[in-house]
Task: structure prediction
Amino acid sequence: MAMDPKTKTLTKLVAVGVTMGALAWASVPLYDWFCRVTGYGGATDVAETGSDEILDQTIKIRFDASKERDFPWEFRPMQREMEIRIGETGLAFYEAYNPTDKPIAGTASYNVTPFEAGGFFSKIACFCFEEQILQPGERVEMPVTFFVEPEIVTDRDAKYTHTITLSYTFYQIDLPEETQAALETEDATEKTVN
Result:
């Protein structure tokens, strides 16, 4: 039984729409996966442990911090730069402060420049792996443990890298209403006790 031309056209348009919607939905996770695998766009690697090989060659790591507009925290690196041997595990700290009178949650996005170095910069532990909640007036030091993979020295593009900049940008996130209310109640209780 043949389909009439209008039904056939409508079926094709619906199929195209569904396909385009599926591709749009999948584009963000696929792009994120692509960046993590290739280091494109300054995405970094994640490692369970440090490197087995440490070279005599050193590399300078610079630290940068920013935040989205109107995000009330203060956020800064506690050191502007350090020099480490390639493959050596480094430890750096960032400081965050909530000057407001209410609990605020945030999460950090990150990248490294130059982009060619992204695939060779590995984080072992980082505050950016989970959301951060700061109580009113709370100041915290947040660590990041990392190393630069020794393979950087033989990569066609990245081998000319002498300085890598690790950048974080903090964004405010909304907590579920019950979590926000519980945090505010907890903070009020602490103020009453003290």
Residues 34-42 have pLDDT under 50 and may be disordered. DSSP finds two helices and ten strands in the chain. Residues 7 and 132 are 53 Å apart (CA to CA). The chain has two domains: 1-38, 41-193.
